[in-house]
Every structure is written in C-alpha cells, then in structure tokens.
Specification:
By secondary structure, the protein is an alpha/beta fold. The protein folds into two domains: 2-54, Spermidine Synthase, Chain: A, domain 2 (Roll), CATH 2.30.140; 58-271, Rossmann fold. The protein has helices spanning 58-72, 88-93, 109-118, 120-123, 138-143, 168-177, 195-208, 254-259, 264-271; strands at residues 2-5, 16-19, 21-27, 32-38, 42-47, 50-54, 78-83, 101-106, 131-135, 148-154, 178-190, 211-218, 226-233. Strands 9-8-7-10-11-13-12 form a seven-stranded mixed sheet, with helices on both faces. Helix 6 links the parallel strand 10 (148-154) and strand 11. Bound molecules: S-adenosylmethionine. S-adenosylmethionine binds next to strand 6, strand 7, strand 8 and helix 5.
Length: 277
C-alpha cells in the first residue's frame, strides 16, 4: 500500500490517502497528473499533488458549483465552463434542457483524455452535440466571446496558470462577454483556512459587477471543508430561485439553494473584516 500526501498550497493541514493502486501517473506541459484508487473515495484525480475530485463526493462540488446560478437565471441558454477538465460541471449543466450551447474551455487536453478513460461517470456529457470543446486558456477565450448567460469557472487553485481566472481583467472581460442578465460563479477556496482570499475575491468582483454574493458547501476532501463559491452578476439576485428545479440531483435542491448563502449579518461582518479566526 502506498500513501499519498497532498500538497495543498494554502492549507495549514496535510491530508493523506492510502492508494490501493496508482492507475495513472504522467506529466503534461502544464501539470503533473495522477489517478489513484482509494478504498473509501474510489478513484481520485490529483493535479500537481492536489486532489481535484474523488468519485465518492464529487457531486457535492459539481452540483453546487453549477445549479445555484442555473436556477437563479431565468433562462440560461449559452453557458461557458472554464476549466473543469474532468467533465463533472459539464455533466451538471447539460441536465438543463434549455441549454443550447455549452463552451467547455480547458487549457490541458490531457486532463480531458484522462477523464474519458478513468472517470466516465463525470465525462459522460462531453460528446453531447451542445458541447463545443476549446483547448485554450479560459481568460483568452472569454476575451473573444459574447452573449453568454452563465460563466462557470471550475479551475485549479489560485496559483500558476489558473491565476488568469482570478484577476480584475478576467472579471471585466467576463462581464463584457455576458448578455445583460449574465452571471458568473467561481470557487474561492475555504472560509476556514482562506478567509482573506475569499474577502479579496469578493472585493475584486464588487469592482466589476453590481451584484456580488457568496455561498458555501461542505466538502470533505478539500482542506478547510467549508468551501466557498463567489458570484458576480449584472442584476439577478442569486438568493432568488427563478426556475423551478426539475432536474435529478443528489444534494442540490431549492432548500439547499436558499440555505447555502451566508446570513446577511454574518456576510457583512466577514466582508468588513470584523471576524478574526
Ligand atoms: N474541482 C476542482 C478543484 O477545485 O480542485 C477543479 C477541477 S478541474 C480538473 C480544474 C481544471 O482547470 C484543470 O484541468 C486545469 O487544467 C484547468 N485550468 C486551470 N487554469 C485554467 C485556465 N486558465 N484556463 C482553462 N482551464 C484551466
């Protein structure tokens, strides 16, 4: 039995997983890729030593990243998923029958190939005719695109080549690429361990978007667990559900939607840096 120790860049704790088997190990122009098999979590995708998803609990992350904005928007038809090479977010977006076009923009083609081979339950939607795969930097793609209803950023942590997706330039291009009711959602690390990053991302979004908010979801396999998702939009309040939930999900539902946002009082204290932990 081999033990894998995660190297999460901002985390004060270190997770380790027993690997029953190493199913794949390789290196691309962008990152190291590894797939291991663990008795509890099933297959685990690891990029540059950081756990991206486990078969067992990926649905918490992918459903919550996708379905909040997809149910707040009145009629999402044109969607872009930036990153998310495993295909989990694409799978969730495609559950919405009204979606006509889905741009799937992943910088590293190898991640898509590995997902097709080892994670078919995640990558199952990639050949849907509504999906157009673009292998390129998401920030470059967004500069050249318009008329999007929803942008979902499903990237690696805020380091290296993923940094381009967490800048004011990117958010400004994202706003320009959206139609007048557009919404963007991005993951912004853990509230327990990365509070300052969360606040900075909210501040950056507020410089660009009139409506900004934050919601959270518990995720066992991301250090800090109390995982945050930040939204920027033009006019729709993401705390409002504007479309009835008709799709099949395991975790997301309309009550979870409403509960996942921080209370307004707690949010204010957080943003004003009145909370010290
Ligand atoms: N849910 C995961 C997490 O937060 O740990 C993210 C999973 S997904 C595999 C992340 C993907 O984002 C990776 O495949 C990576 O190649 C891609 N990515 C990172 N930066 C990117 C960029 N600038 N443009 C497009 N894709 C990017």
């Amino acid at each position: 039995m081999i033990k894998f120790f995660e190297k999460e860049p901002y985390s004060p704790v270190e997770y380790s997983y027993e690997a029953e088997r190493i199913l794949y190990k390789g290196k691309t122009k962008y990152q190291d890729i590894m797939v291991i098999e663990n008795n509890t979590f099933g297959k685990i995708l690891i990029l540059d030593g950081i756990v991206q998803l486990t078969e067992k609990d990926e649905f918490f992350y992918h459903e919550m990243l996708t379905h909040i904005v997809m149910h707040s928007h009145h009629a999402p038809k044109r969607v872009a998923v930036i990153g998310g090479g495993d295909g989990g977010t694409v799978r969730e977006v495609l559950k919405h029958q009204g979606v006509e076009k889905l741009y799937f923009v992943e910088i590293d083609e190898e991640v898509i190939k590995i997902a097709r081979e080892f994670f078919p339950s995640l990558s199952s939607g990639l050949d849907d005719p509504r999906v157009q795969i673009k292998v390129m930097d998401g920030a470059e793609f967004i500069k050249r695109t318009d008329d999007l209803d929803i942008i979902i950023v499903d990237s690696t942590d805020i380091i290296g080549f993923a940094r381009t997706l967490f800048t004011i330039d990117f958010f400004q291009s994202a706003k320009k690429s959206m139609n007048n009711r557009g919404m963007l959602v991005t993951h912004t690390e853990s509230l327990h361990f990365h509070k300052e990053i969360v606040i900075e991302m909210q501040e950056m979004l507020k410089k660009v978007f009139p409506v900004v908010d934050l919601y959270t979801t518990p995720i066992a396999t991301y250090p800090g667990n109390w995982w945050t998702f930040s939204i920027g939009g033009t006019d729709i309040d993401p705390r409002t559900i504007n479309r009835h939930c008709e799709i099949k999900t395991r975790y997301y539902d309309s009550e979870i939607h409403l509960q996942s946002f921080l209370t307004k009082g707690f949010y204010r204290k957080l943003i004003n840096r009145e909370l010290d932990w």
